[in-house]
Write a sequence for this structure.
């Protein structure tokens, strides 16, 4: 593997598709979903459910205590009830956040379920390759076993996941990808996987079933988007530990405050003690933590990526090295003709005409691009085959490595690999000029592919010139790589090309490094090497031979068009089969962690203001000097405590959209990100509650019994 | 020379001396704990203990060795105290009562040196020298050893070994603490501190009455008392006693001794993890808080409020006039930000806010710079918490010095941060809830609450300074104090070593621009913020009912 210094690409030429917008946004909070999630939110009040979230469980226990206290107490009844109601609301708001996040997944799951209706499968009991007369048997799709063979014809739904073992068909996969254009599935190769629930539109295929009923791709998708199989990710667990320990510290601080309060002659009521605990423990992040995780997975689903575990999403945020396949990720699918270079006094127009003629019957993407270049660059209208009477087209074969046409007037035009065409010239009594050899070498040296064009008229052949085919680097990809570099992520291009070609494309696209003439083993070795240096590696793959590397990589994104082996090995599947999406996946992973960190910081910073609201309220009566701590100038002790609790509950609702959307993320260095988020969520978390509590106090100070 | 100029000159010289010394000393300690040559004396010690000095220990074995050593230490000191009356050099002192002996044994083994007794009237020379002074060395060496084991966790990769406790303990004692103590003791003696076996010297005063002057091996114990951050005075008056701390020079020198090892260990840390900038970032956190607290204490003690204070020019009650406000404030701040607990003035007599700063210094968990070793491992635990929250905000699994902070690491760091405040709050709460311990309070009102808070904060943070004004030589305070000191010393050490073990197993992650930088001012600011916020939020209610209630009018 060679290392290249990233080079700026030349200004992108012409007509490529613009880079897709990639800023991470997210679904908005739909009031309808909010309303629908309310019953779910109340159901989650069950302590057996609530106990899984230690912070909110403490709030719930506190709410039970204050309820009891409000029922039994005879003094300051309105105050006790107000606090009680707002404590219950705090718990409900937290549950709403989670229910809303889940609700979005549930809607998606319902759509998927509709595709999972009962299908009858036509099982072939004794199918063998090539056998036409296998016996057919109708069985329900749910009774299919691993290794069964089924036949599916146009108009029928594929009964289970599997690989096509015979035939070719166009398949409508819109049920899972949302993409209405049909895709081709054929036996053998990397496009053999079919998914149960999708529909065959044409032809007939035989499918070998590769998944058990109940464990199909759609089943897994439903479980994933519903969050049924959601497990806490490592970072989430670590954060929970931190939150739990903070909760314990604050619980202790408040419990031990009571003997101190007694000593000071100002024992506090249960309601106030509970209110203080709830105000101090990190309820904001505790309430939103699981919603953030669910929403993060959901953001991936919205981009048509299925992560098999939250762990994979988190790993994506940690990735240090991205392995990107050249074709389809860095370059547009195929090479394209970009220039006609004539030799020996030939007019460029003449060369273009010959090149077009020789490519009329060449239906490869390269051949098409020659016709297109001739039309766009030289105004040569594309001639149909029928327009040239008596012309005989010579198709490209691996042996001749040439294609062309024999016209009725005896003129022959050929186009193909340099060595093959030069040989043809010599056989036809011509001499390839030296200039041609230099031109061919020059193009190869900069990573292009030269095709030589020659003609034979009147018995002797001569070279006309060279067609310059090159890989077209996707527009905007260099900027993406630059962004990734600022995020500290190294990009490595994987290509089967020779090192020379690979280096040229690497230079043009700005990729950090490349692996040329790569075999699956090379790829695997590269991953292991990176990992042994402590790096996390992400890659995309689709072929069966990618499967081991996909399994080895920390983040392996399998293309939905790929084989089922690849999909099984990776920990994510991209339903759009767009390898560039790996970059977005990394950003979503990072955004998920940043959202957690930012809201944790915000939550803890909030406590300062709450102390300044509550402590003077609690002890001003015995130590009047403590009124100096009432910097917000809150109206009365009861209004101060009530305001703090109301703020504490409302901030959860206010932050639900942020939790679901994720905090804004722009690719930049760790230092820049940290500074920005510290200012916004650290300083903001310190200041906002002072303002919020004061505003609430201004409103509620007029309510009798509280003000 | 005016008082404030003298104050700045003292502080300036102190910073200069520390700046000059921390580098060679830090590098030296790093070499001592990483080298593989044994001195002949050390080899003899290993043979005697039956230790293979080349055997690397897992964290659990390291921990067991340390606990075994400390258990024997507690027992030995306890026995010395109980039977001192039957031993030579007892200076006529009878055996110490069981509860006091327990408290003192726990106190000196845990590097706390909380003293519920007057040294000159309770402990014989043998107990002082073979019991207490030995622990002054041993407990300091244990603290450094644990810190070194944690640093090895950061520095090493893919191993379950953290070093050998017995080797670390021996080398730190033999190569660092002993030689430095000899030099320090000579300087103190030259400065006028006493060091003799003269039991009692009777002098006749001008008024005709007689006074008993108790001598003893003072300077030799004084030096390790300060340098090992122990703080247990030979005399009850501690460093306010003219035999321990005769003049402003010795006072300055003792402050220097208190700070020199804790600050130097940051350099050791940077050296051992192969990135000095990391050590300096931690050092910056420590220095910032130390300077700020010394300045605040001076400010509050100089602020004139009240007639008596205005007449004296400053809050001079309980302070040695020779040292003045600067010498006293600097000493008080330095002894409380380290876990020393030696005093040259009476913290009980400080202004409410001056006293609040001192108690807050201890509440920060003795990490700025903290006790020898204990300060370093403590601040590294807080840095782990800081890195976790900050690291999430840059969108990666948080990393510190190339090690990921995963659930296991977080668990140990969280338990560490939880342990000490839990002990302080629970035992202060209990002491205030029961009648008997409450009766020990000599000053009613918020000041009395501060006295109890101060006592448990001091014991749980292994500081050992007393606010006074609280009669603590009672069964309640002796027994609970011993429990608090032992738990708060050794429970955190378990978490520290467990974290070290878990870090050592990890493969080191390479640094990239995507890694949160932990050597820049922003990170220094974050660690300071996390320390102040966590401590502030934990103790704010107690502080409000103590010093704030007393100081705000």
């Amino acid at each position: 593997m060679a290392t290249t210094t990233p080079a700026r690409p030349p200004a992108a030429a012409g007509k490529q598709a613009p880079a897709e917008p990639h800023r991470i946004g997210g679904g908005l909070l739909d009031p309808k979903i909010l309303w629908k999630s309310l019953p779910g939110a109340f159901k989650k009040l069950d302590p057996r459910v609530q106990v899984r979230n230690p912070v909110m469980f403490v709030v719930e226990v506190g709410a039970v205590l204050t309820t009891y206290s409000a029922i039994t107490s005879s003094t300051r009844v309105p105050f006790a009830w107000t606090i009680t109601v707002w404590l219950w609301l705090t718990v409900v708001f937290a549950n709403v956040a989670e229910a809303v996040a889940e609700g979005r997944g549930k809607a998606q799951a319902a759509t998927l379920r509709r595709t999972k209706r009962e299908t009858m499968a036509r099982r072939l009991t004794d199918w063998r390759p090539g056998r036409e007369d296998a016996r057919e048997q109708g069985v329900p799709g749910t009774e299919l076993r691993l290794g069964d063979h089924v036949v599916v014809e146009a108009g029928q739904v594929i009964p289970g996941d599997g690989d096509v073992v015979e035939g070719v068909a166009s398949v409508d996969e819109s049920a899972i990808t949302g993409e209405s254009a049909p895709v081709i599935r054929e036996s053998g190769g990397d496009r053999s996987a079919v998914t149960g629930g999708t529909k065959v539109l044409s032809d007939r295929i035989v499918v070998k079933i590769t998944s058990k009923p109940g464990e199909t791709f759609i089943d897994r998708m439903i479980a994933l988007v519903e969050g049924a199989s959601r497990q806490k990710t490592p970072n989430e667990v670590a954060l929970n530990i931190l939150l739990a320990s903070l909760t314990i510290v604050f619980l202790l601080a408040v419990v031990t405050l009571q003997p101190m309060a007694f000593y000071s002659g100002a024992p506090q009521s249960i309601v106030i003690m509970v209110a203080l605990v709830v105000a101090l423990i990190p309820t904001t992040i505790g309430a939103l933590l699981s919603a953030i995780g669910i929403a993060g997975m959901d953001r991936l689903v919205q981009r048509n990526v299925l992560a098999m575990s939250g762990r994979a999403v988190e790993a994506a945020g940690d990735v240090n090295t991205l392995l990107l396949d050249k074709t389809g990720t860095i370059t547009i699918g195929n090479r394209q003709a970009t220039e006609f270079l004539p030799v020996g006094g030939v007019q460029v127009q003449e060369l273009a005409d010959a090149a077009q003629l020789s490519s009329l019957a060449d239906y490869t993407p390269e051949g098409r691009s020659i016709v297109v270049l001739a039309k766009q660059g030289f105004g040569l209208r594309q001639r149909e085959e029928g327009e040239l009477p008596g012309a005989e087209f010579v198709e490209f074969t691996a042996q001749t490595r040439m294609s062309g046409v024999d016209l009725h007037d005896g003129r022959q035009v050929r186009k193909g690999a340099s060595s093959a065409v030069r040989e043809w010239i010599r056989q036809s009594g011509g001499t390839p000029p030296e200039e041609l050899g230099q031109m061919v070498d020059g193009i190869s040296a900069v990573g292009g592919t030269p095709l030589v064009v020659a003609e034979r008229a009147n018995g002797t052949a001569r070279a006309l010139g060279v067609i310059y085919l090159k890989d077209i680097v996707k527009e905007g990809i260099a900027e993406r790589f630059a962004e990734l570099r600022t995020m500290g992520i190294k990009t490595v291009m994987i290509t089967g090309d020779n090192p020379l070609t690979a280096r040229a494309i690497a230079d043009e696209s700005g990729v950090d490094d490349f692996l040329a003439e790569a075999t699956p083993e090379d790829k695997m070795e590269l991953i292991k090497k990176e990992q042994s240096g402590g790096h996390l590696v992400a890659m995309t793959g689709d072929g069966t031979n990618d499967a081991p590397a996909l399994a080895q990589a920390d983040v392996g994104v399998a293309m939905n068009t790929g084989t089922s082996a690849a999909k099984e090995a990776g920990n994510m599947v991209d339903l759009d089969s767009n390898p560039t999406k790996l970059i977005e996946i990394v950003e979503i992973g990072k955004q998920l962690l940043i959202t957690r960190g930012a809201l944790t910081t915000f939550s803890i910073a909030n406590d300062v203001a709450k102390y300044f609201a509550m402590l003077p309220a609690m002890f001003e009566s015995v130590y009047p000097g403590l009124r100096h701590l009432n910097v917000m100038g809150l109206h009365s002790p009861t209004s101060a405590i009530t305001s703090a609790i109301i703020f504490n509950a409302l901030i959860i609702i206010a932050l639900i959209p942020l939790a679901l959307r994720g905090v804004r993320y722009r690719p930049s260095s760790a230092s820049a990100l940290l500074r920005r988020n510290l200012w916004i969520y650290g300083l903001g978390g310190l200041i906002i509650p002072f303002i919020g509590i004061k505003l609430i106090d201004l409103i509620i100070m007029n309510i009798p019994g509280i003000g | 020379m005016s008082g404030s100029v003298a104050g700045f000159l003292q502080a300036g010289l102190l910073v200069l001396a520390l700046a000059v010394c921390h580098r060679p000393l830090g590098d030296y300690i790093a070499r001592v704990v990483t080298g593989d040559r044994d001195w002949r004396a050390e080899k003899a010690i290993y043979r005697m203990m039956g230790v293979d000095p080349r055997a690397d220990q897992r964290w659990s074995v390291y921990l067991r060795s340390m606990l075994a050593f400390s258990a024997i230490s507690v027992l030995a000191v306890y026995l010395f105290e109980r039977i001192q009356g039957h031993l030579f050099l007892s200076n006529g002192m009878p055996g110490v009562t069981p509860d006091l002996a327990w408290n003192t044994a726990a106190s000196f083994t845990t590097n706390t040196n909380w003293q519920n007794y007057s040294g000159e009237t309770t402990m014989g020379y043998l107990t002082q020298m073979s019991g207490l002074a030995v622990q002054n060395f041993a407990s300091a060496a244990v603290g450094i050893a644990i810190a070194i084991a944690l640093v090895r966790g950061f520095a090493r990769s893919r191993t379950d070994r953290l070093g050998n406790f017995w080797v670390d303990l021996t080398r730190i004692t033999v190569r660092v603490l002993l030689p430095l103590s000899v030099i320090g003791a000579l300087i103190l003696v030259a400065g006028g501190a006493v060091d003799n076996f003269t039991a009692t010297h009777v002098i006749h005063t001008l008024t005709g009455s007689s006074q008993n002057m108790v001598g003893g091996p003072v300077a030799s114990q004084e030096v390790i008392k300060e340098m090992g951050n122990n703080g247990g005075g030979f005399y009850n008056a501690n460093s306010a006693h003219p035999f321990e701390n005769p003049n402003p020079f010795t006072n300055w020198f003792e402050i220097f001794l208190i700070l020199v090892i804790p600050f130097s260990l940051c350099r050791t840390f940077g050296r051992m993890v192969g990135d000095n900038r990391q050590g300096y970032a931690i050092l910056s956190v420590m220095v910032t808080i130390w300077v700020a607290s010394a300045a605040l204490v001076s400010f509050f003690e100089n602020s004139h409020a009240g007639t008596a204070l205005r007449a004296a020019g400053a809050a001079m009650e309980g302070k040695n006039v020779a040292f003045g406000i600067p010498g006293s404030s600097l000493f008080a701040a330095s002894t409380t930000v380290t876990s020393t607990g030696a005093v040259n003035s009476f913290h009980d007599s400080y202004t409410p806010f001056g006293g609040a700063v001192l108690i807050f210094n201890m509440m920060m968990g003795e990490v700025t710079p903290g006790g020898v070793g204990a300060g370093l491992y403590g601040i590294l635990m807080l840095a782990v918490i800081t890195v976790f929250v900050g690291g999430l905000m840059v969108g990666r699994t948080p990393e510190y010095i190339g090690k990921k902070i995963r659930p296991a690491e977080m668990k140990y760091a969280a338990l560490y941060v939880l342990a000490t405040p839990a002990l302080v709050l629970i035992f202060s709460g209990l002491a205030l809830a029961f009648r008997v311990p409450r009766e020990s309070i000599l000053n009613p009102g918020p000041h009395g609450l501060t006295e109890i808070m101060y006592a448990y904060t001091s014991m749980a943070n292994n500081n050992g300074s007393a606010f006074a004004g609280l009669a603590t030589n009672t069964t309640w305070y002796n027994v609970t104090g011993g429990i608090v000191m032992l738990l708060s010393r050794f429970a955190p050490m378990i978490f520290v070593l467990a974290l070290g073990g878990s870090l050592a197993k990890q493969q080191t992650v390479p640094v990239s621009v995507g890694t949160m930088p932990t050597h820049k001012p922003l990170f220094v600011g974050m660690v300071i913020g996390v320390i102040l916020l966590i401590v502030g939020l934990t103790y704010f209610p107690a502080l409000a009912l103590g010093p704030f209630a007393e100081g705000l009018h």
Observations:
- The CA atoms of residues 159 and 366 of chain B lie 30 Å apart.
- The mean pLDDT of chain B is 92.
- Chain B touches chain A through 65 residues (CB under 8 Å).
